[in-house]
Structures are given as structure tokens and as C-alpha cells.
Fold these 2 entries.
Entry 1:
Amino acid sequence: MGRTEPGPVPESAKKHGYDAITSKGRRAAPISATKAEGKQLDPYGRQKLTATTRDLVRNFSVAKWMIARHLDYTSFFSFTPTTKDKGFNAYLTSVVADLGRAERFDAAGRHRLESFFRLCEARRIIDGDVGVLKVSSGPGTGSVMAVEADRIRNPSDSRNFVKKPQGSGSRSSWVNGVKVNDSGRTLAYSIWNRDQGGSNWVDPRDIRGGRMWLYGFFDSSYRFDQVRGISPLASAANQLKDAMESSEFAILKAKSQAFFSLVLSRDAEESAGDITGGAAADQPEDKSGIDVDFGAGPVLLDLLPGEDAKFLQSNEPSDQFKNYMNYTLEAAMKALNISPSMYSSEKSTWHGSRSDQLAYDRGCLAAREDHRNLRDKWTVWRLTLAILDGELDLPSGWTLEDVRWEWVHRGTPWWRPDQEIKGDIDAIGAGFSNPMRVCRERGQGEFEQNIDATIRAVKYARERGLEELGEPIRLNFELPPEATPQATPQPDEPGEE
């Protein structure tokens, strides 16, 4: 059968249907085509988007600041063992700290654990995703290698979404460098190297999916069939480019007007300044009666009747331009859920800024969970290798299943300690919270460790006689008997009864 064109939309549908799909001639026609996200952003499109976002971060300070704020709220974690054996917890913490040194953690030997994972978060913001390749054999065994997004590309003989037989009746296809089965599960990655010039691609190799973690943003377009991560800056790239270019044009305009700061008006025929070259070759040079030199200090202009002097004043950048820039930047910040008050607090009250900070902190929960999940994957893999290699000794009868830990986000400190600490204490007293949660949410470490450290501090202060020197350290709980130093009986002095 031949292809038929859809007929006209009935009037009843126009009156009672969705306005979004009805063209009324006032704006662009509604979009009718839908595609998989991997086709919507194909390999060429990904290359252009990656180049654009990288250029913005490289050359526009606001874009770099936006990413830095996101990293500050999402990428700071502390490793906290949670087994019942405190001695083993301290031992495990030291082992993980040693495994996280740059020499052992990064295959390139440049980045320690914390800086490496922070860079991973930055790369998925800028490029959409980043690969974390596990080195399980040969030199550098147990380390990880970062694979930037543009190095994950389709094999030269494969096209996007072209399905090929896989065996057992299943089929597979390549989608922007990732081989997936019919269910969308990752089977392999195709990784390329850069040549010496850094612009061409050479030496491709396929690795099975289990050897690399693809850490990316999979909620930028809110699609289930999304195979590769997409940068959240995609929706803000045009606004950021407009702001960057407009800022440069405004600066150029202001500089050009600065060259013409003094305007002289006169009815006479002579020039109004020390102008040379105004006479014929065989005549003496004609100079006006006004010689202006701003480099010599204060200037006094003795003008003749009919002459006038004024400075050219520029209103650049204008208020309209400032409003445009603020609106454009505020719209771009929404891509990362950043509130404008975090960029400029001039128009916000303390309560407004605090409210924005709390809303932004809540908006970072999903990104933190992604980050925590990546760290957990590394911890399971790396501790397994450490046990097999004899680098981690477990208590008798223990397996890796008995080892418990948590990557705790360091949280945000108190803004107004005099008020917020009291609120936290009240919440604990009412059963709405607990000391462990408060310490974690405020980035104050572990409650148990804080108590142990406080007991040691109080004991030392009392041993040194701090109470005799002034106000002692006060706690809202009684110290255990073993923490309170006992007075040592002194021998009687001679002459005493």
C-alpha cells in the first residue's frame, strides 16, 4: 500500500485536545518525530556537544564556577567502616587510605582517590560520562584508569543501532561506542587511543562490559533507553555561549569609547589640538592654539569664544545589558539546579539564601547517590583483590560479606551555629533525629569518634589542671569513671601533724 498523509485535524480535537500538538500559526509547528536518545545525539552530535562544553569551561569563568559549586556539594565523602569490631574498623580505614594513594590508585600515578573521583564527577558534567577502567593484571594491577568520553567510539566497521546476530537468537548493536543486547544491557565497549597529535583516533580495542564502569548522567533527558550519559550543560550551552560572547563585545565597546574621551567643539577653522601634518611641504607646520596633554597632570583649557569642551561619557554596560546578562546566566544555572543567590547574594536576604541553599542541597541527593555507588563498586572490587593478595587480613571466620562500610557525605556546616545547633539538639531530644545523623549531615565526622576524642581532651585538660586556670570544658553528659583522673595521695610534709 502507498503511504497516506494524515488528514486535517477535526475541529472537535482542536477545541478539546492538547494545545501542544495543535498548530495555530503563532509559533513553530509541533514536532512529530521521536527517536532514541542515541540517535538524537549521534556520534557526530556528541563530538560537537563535547567540544562546546569543554570550550565553555576552558574560557568562561561562570561555567567553571557552576561546575565547582556542584562538585563541592556532591563529591566530598569519607570512608567509614561500620563493623562492630572497632579495632578492625581502624585497621580497614588505614588499608583503604593506603590503597587510595595516587601511586596505587591511579594507573597514571597522578590522582589520589579523592581527586580522581572528583574529576570523574566533573567529566560527567562536562562530557556526559567517563569510563573507569579496572586494571586487573600486569603492571599497575589494582589501579584504575580514566577513559574520557570521546575515546569511547563505535568500531570503524559498525554504525549506530545496526543490529547483528549475537548467538542463541539474540542480537546486539553498537550505540555510540557501547555494545548492547536487545534488552539494552552493556556487553562491551570500544575504546580508542589518541595519536601523537591528539586529534586522530588509532588502536581501537574492545573490552567486555564488566571491565569498566561507565559513570555518566542518565537523567539529563529522562529517557530509559539512554545508553550514553549526556551532559546537563546541553540545555544551557546556548545561554552560556551568549553570555560569554556578549560580555566580550561589551568590553570591546567600552574600550573603544575610552579612546575618545575628550570632545572639543569650536566655530573657528583651526584644529582643536596638537595636530601635525596640516601644512604643505614647503610651509611651516600649522598647529592650533590648544595643546592638550593629559599625561602632564591637571589640564587647564583656555578656550576662545565659540569653543566648547566636554568629556564623552559612556553608559556601557547599560542597565539593560546587565539585566540581560543576569537573566541569561540565571537561566543557565538552572541546568545544575544552582540558585542565583549562590552566584550573587546582593538581592537576597539571609533567610532567602539559606532557603536556596537547602533546596540546592536536596537537589544534589541523586548525584550523591550516583557518586556513592561508584565508590562502593570500587571498594568491593579493590578489597576483594586485597584479600586475595594478602594485603587485607580479615578476622577469623570472616569473609568480604562481613565487612561493612559506608561512604559518608561530609555534608554542610552550620550557617548560624548559635541557632542551628540548638535546633539540632531539640530535634534529637524530640526523637526527630539522632547524634549520628546530625554529625554526618553537618560534616562533623562520626559521633562515636567525636565522643572518644572529647573524652581524651577533657581527661588531658583535667590532668593539666585546666579547671584551676579558669572555666573547665563542660559536657552535657557525665564522663565514665575511668576517664576521670584520680588524685594521687601525697606524703605528709615534714612538720605536719
Entry 2:
Amino acid sequence: MIAASVILTAQNDRQIISRIETRLLPPVIVKGRPLETNTIAAQMRELKVPGVSAAAFTNGRIAWTHGWGLADVTSGRRVTRDTRFQAASISKPVAAAVVLALVSRGRLSLDAPVNQFLRTWKLPDNEYTAARPVTLRHLLTHSAGTTVHGFRGYARGEEVPALHQVLDGLRPANSAAVRVDIPVGSKWRYSGGGISIAQLVVEDETNKPFAQVARELVLQPFGMTNSTFVQPLPADLRDSAATGYRASGDEVTGKWHTYPEQAAAGLWTTPEDLAKFAIEIQRIAAGSSGGVMSRALAQEMLTRQVDEWGLGVGVLGDGASTRFSHGGSNDGFRAFFVGYRDAPSGVVVMTNSDAGMPIADAVVRTVANEYAWPGLRPVERTPGAADPATYADFAGFYDRPGSTPPFVLIIADAGRLFVSTGPRPGERAELLPESSDTFFAVDRDRRIHFVRDPTGRVTEARISEAGREIRVPRRLGQ
């Protein structure tokens, strides 16, 4: 009976992989219109993505892993389950687990001033830290007010700085100094610089390299045997590493960049290993595993603390759809992982291209549809009626300070409405009407409601996406 069950499961998994290969689903299904799907092969060709690797896990076990395409175009080396990719910012959740492992052992505190644990370097104090000192909790939730969003790494042949040089923005570092420039705890603002401070905390407290501590406390206990934070990548691991590629299809100079900012961007790993990581965090939070960190800390990690952010991971959805996730974007690599907080299931996708994220997104939602997971499946929208003659009322710039770009551009063209998705004229997605003043995008789960003042003039747009609504005012004079 057990053998028959295993065989049946394997057959189901192969069928799921086959459907993913041949029937990638769009983000939005328009009711009444033919369903437009794509194949992985076609989308990889279109986007010039050489390789894709994925792993799905259900009921606390890895259901399947699969690779498509090439790890290296020149040699023709194919992607396998053991091909290592740069995890980029998905390094941050794993690094957060390293910090929490030390907190569980009483070596660190989430809520004590971080300078208390720093010995070889101190975060400079100023008027913002005087009122409220920075803590590890602030750093892991991106609420410390620290600067430096991300890092571009160092091409082969470039001098690689020490972590202290990165934190102070000193040559040969290619990023600015990491400093606090807004009130601590005042807002969520993504900061790879803050995670780099946490990396130094680990090194100063243990008197060991971060990569070694991560291996001892998290990677080995979680069974992540194909993962390392060592930078540069050791010579004996390079033959199993994917080469990174630009969106043009050109190879990244030197095949990949080196990241001394290991905790923020330096993890080399596989989808299978990241699936193991997610499963173990889920198990610890559920009380069915232990040793690496306490159950209470694992639960804190997966609980919203600042906006939609836990300790090192984004936390989205409510009820059964509550999930933790993170994306990754290094030069030549794009990746995404997601797991459900209350059910040991999820999926990881890694690619070796700057253009890989649309494929990762498509694989995630198609896998979610196969397993009927909530919150990640394509959404279905029903078109309504609107008068195209009114579309000119909505066209124009809507200001969104703090975003990139800092505006939303709505375009009326030949009786159709569009939202700009890039700097070039052709980079736009169509908006279809739900009603006279409410529209939905076809390239992502986004709804836009245009608000008129008593005179009938459109003054703002209310944009709903990922369960949140933001209000963006129309630029004056339009």
C-alpha cells in the first residue's frame, strides 16, 4: 500500500510538472475571454532566460524539483536539481534565522541597542538614534531608518571591500555609507544596509565569519547541503553554479558578482534547499521541530510587525492565505520563494537572468493553481461597461512620492486605457473597465478607481494591489 501511494504521488507530480511546462497561467483571467496560457520554453525564449529551477513542497515534504534550460550557455551545461543560483535578497530570511538562532541561545537580544553587540565597528549615533536606539528587531523588520536599499556586488577582477568598508562607504566599496537618516522605528523602508549591520553583529558576537556561523547554526541543521554564504564562491563549487545573464541575453562579466554583503545578498543555494528552509521554519513555528530557534521566535518571524513585514520576511494575506515570502534580485539572477504560515506548503523558483522574474511569478501562480493554494492563484475579473469617450478624463500623471518611478501614468489611446509599466512608450498594460470609473489591469492583480470632485474632474486614483489600497493624487494642472 505504501509503495502504491508513493508511485501515485510521483505520477501526480510528473503530471503537475508537465502542465506547468505547457500551461503557464496569466495573473488575471478575464471572464468571457479565451484563456491565454504560455509554455515555459516559449517564455524563456521570449525573455532570453537561459535557465529556470523550481521546487514545490506540500504537507511538510518536498513534492518535486525540476530544472529547465541551461545553467551556462557557452558550455551547454544544463540546470539540474543541484545547480546553485544566487539567492540575492532571499539571503535575508536565512540570515534572519541565523540571528534568531543566536537570540534563542541568549547570545543576542532583539530589543537591546545594536551597538551593545558591535565591537569592531559602531553605528554612528545622531539625533535620530539619540531618541531611540537601533535594535536587531528594527534591522530585521527594515524599520531602523538605515540607508542603502541594495548592493550591486563586485565583478570578477574588481577589488572587494571588507564589511567595515561597506558600512562606512569607503573605497573600494561601491555603495554609500550605512547611516540612520530618519527617526528610528518611524516607517518601513527596505534596507540591505541594515541587514549588513546584522551580519557584523553575528561576526562580532561569535568571533567567527558569518558564513561559518550560518553553516553551523542553520544550513547544516536544516539539511541545506547545497548552500553557502562564502564569498567569493569557492573554486570547487563553481562548476555547479549557474552563470548570470542580462536581460539582453549577454553573460554577466565574470559570470557573476561577488557580494561581501553576505547576509543581504550573498547566499548561493538551490530551490530544494530553500524549500527545506521554509519547511523547517514552518515546523518550528508549529511546534513540531526545534533546536535551531525557539517556537516563539519562529512565530514572531512569521508575524507582521511593521507593515507587512515579519523578522526578515514579508508576511502577506490573512487566514488560510497568510504566507511568508521574499524575492531576490542580483545582477544576472532573479528568484522568489513563498511558504504558508499555517500549512507546510509553498514553492521556490530561481532563474539566471535579469529578466527571470516574470517566469518565476508565472510558475508560482500556476503551481498554486494546481494545488488550490489561496492568495497566489490567478484572479478572475468580470469586465463591465464604460464610455471610451471618458477615458481622456483619467489620463495623466498621478504622484506617488517614494516609489520608483514616483508617479503612475495613465494613458488614453484609440479608445483604450493603459497604465505605463516602464520608461518606453510601448511598456504599458491595458486597463479594462469594471464600471464607469473603476478599471483592472490585465498584467497583474491591480484595480484602479478614479475619484471625481463635485465638478466631475478626476482628482485622484485609488489603486488596490496585494490586498492594500493606496491613494495617489492627480498632478495639479492636468
